[in-house]
Amino acid sequence: MYRKYLFEAKFVSLCVRCYDSGREREMIKMPAIFVLATEPSGDTLGALILKELKEKYPFLEVRGIGGPLMQQAGNFSSSFPLQELSHIGIGSILKKSFPILKIFRQVLLDLRTNPYCGLLTIDGPEFCLRISARVPFLPRVHCVAPTVWAWRPKRAQTLPKATDHLLSLFSFEKPYFSGLSYHHVGHPLAEVPLGRPQEFWQAFPQLSTQKPLLSLLPGSRRSEIQNFWPIFQATVELLKQRIPDLQVVVAGLPYTTPLLNAMGCTFPIVQDPDLKSDLFKASNAALVASGTATLEVALQGTPMVIGYKVHPLAAWLFKRLATVSSIGLVNLIGPDPLVPECLQKDFTPHNLAGKLFLLLEKEDPSLKKNLEGLRDLLWAGNPFALNCTNVLSHAFKITE
Predict the structure, then answer these.
(1) What is the pTM of this model?
(2) pLDDT in tens, 128-175
(3) What are the tens digits of pLDDT across the range 9-23?
(4) CATH of domain 197-378
């Protein structure tokens, strides 16, 4: 009786293995790519690319790591939550080193054991390019050029070993890269139309068009909000001593809003991307944590002050390795810096309030015009997602 059951068990096991093998062969016929985005900015860009890929190649399977926007964009499920990899500063990296190493190994195992036709990495070069460098047998595309023009310029020399194709957001970056296929795809913010202030005022009837409006953008990472929000809040309190009727609205994200509320934010929070453009256009000034957000605000012609602070060790390293004095993209992509920055020891409520007061007190039409003019530097002939998809189609040999 025992032998009979043993034979049946082995037979069932053999059938299951044959069935799984057949499924694997079918899966190989279905082209699949691996997409890796480890930052909120990468999630935003990845979502645009996935939408375009889904439209053009509905049969294409996409796996990898990304955030909520990428998961909403198409047939994509992230292997790990984006928050597991989104970090900032030396202290944060040390705290998360073991979980990050575990994810690193699992991603490599996935790439080495499954039949992908290509790897797309988006931003987050410290993690993404380390993964990419270890899978040279795959066609590799990296979106968002490392900022070698700002700091650690020697990274450009090692990039050809880490990826085969580079998708650059800014046209001025081309001279910095050689030894790989370079493509200027433009920046998606160039496609965002000018905001409509009336739409914002209609959405917030409790606010008045006759009173000054300040936008707050305290960052997209948890660590940024935890570190910066108390300073932003104290800045507003100082400003209200000089401008009692000042109105304040926060530009947030679905996953940052609960944290802002938990930290005592009582101001209205805007999450909708279209309404954010309307908010920025309606604002007299903005206080912005550095990053892509500075461009979002600038392209609406809104004056701003940039505020940022990192771990002292990270700041020391940046000073030693940096080739620029500014950190805000809005100050880096144009011929001249356009907005003030309060960094490190200067990142105080007193300094921020003083600079914001000057912007709120008197409008500068020429500054608004110069900020809006940055849009021309971000356009590459066709929409960002279309340019990216064309490169991916060629690099990964995807056919309709």
Answers:
(1) 0.80
(2) 999 999 999 999 999 999 988 887 888 999 999 999 999 999 988 999
(3) 444 344 434 444 444
(4) 3.40.50.2000
- Residue from 38, 356, 62, 25 nearest 220 by CA: 38
Q: The sheet that has 285-289: what strands, in order across it?
A: 269-270, 247-251, 213-217, 285-289, 304-308, 341-343
CA distance 147 to 170: 10
- Do 316 and 195 touch, CB atoms closer than 8 A? no
Yes or no: say if 108 and 34 are a contact pair by the CB < 8 Å rule: no
Place of tokens 């890929």: 53
- Is residue 58 a contact partner of residue 144, using CB atoms and an 8 Å limit? no
Task: Give the C-alpha separation, 305 to 355, whole Å.
Answer: 7
pLDDT tens profile 65-111: 998 899 999 778 888 877 677 654 444 444 557 788 899 999 999 99
Query: 349-361 and 222-242 helices cross at what angle (nearest 10)?
Result: 60
d(CA 46, CA 111): 19
E-assigned strands of 314-355? 341-343
> Beta-strand (E) ranges in the chain?
32-37, 61-65, 119-122, 140-143, 165-168, 181-184, 213-217, 247-251, 269-270, 285-289, 304-308, 341-343
Residue 315 CA from chain centroid, whole number: 21
Q: Among residues 224, 228, 189, which one has the least CA distance to residue 329?
A: 189
* Domain 30-186+380-395 class, CATH top level: alpha beta
At 224, which amino acid appears?
A: E
Nearest CA to 152 out of 379, 366, 350, 317 is that of 317
Residue extent(s) of CATH 3.40.50.2000 domains in the chain:
30-186+380-395, 197-378
